[in-house]
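Hey L., structure's done. Input below.
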Amino acid sequence: MWDLSKTRIPNALIVSGLIIGVFYRVLCMGERNYLAILLGIMIPVLLFFPLFLIRAMGAGDIKLFAVTGAFFTIGENLKCIVLAIMLGGVFALIKVLFYRNLRERLKYMFTYFRNVLQFAGTGSFYGFSYADREDDECVKRAGIKFSLPILIATIIVMGDML
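Output:
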């Protein structure tokens, strides 16, 4: 709800989720391989950090995947990640169809990646944004709240665990 209304996920919620997830894995699931729990938390961070650097993914979304990694095994979390990416793609496609801006988004995407690749060697690509954050209408037409696909994927993976 925070992400949908305020476009931010408070770190206090993330830390709470991480703590509860670790306690859940240790106390309820009997997990004794603490390295597996730590890897489950760190893999999404390492996997998605490059996307954060080029502003293709928000830090809050990456931290949410770290929280799911605290609750899920590595395999379950990878399943959650793949599902969330697929759902995010469906959400993005629906949004493009709704706003009828496929050509505009593809042109912007190719320009964006060309600029990222062009400036990657210098490191000056950091801070490029996939959508102009100052242009509310552009953000409305271009972006999706990835926390929603993450939530749905998490629920689906949890259902598979039962």
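Residues 74-99 form the longest helix (26 residues). The chain has one domain: 2-161.

-- N.
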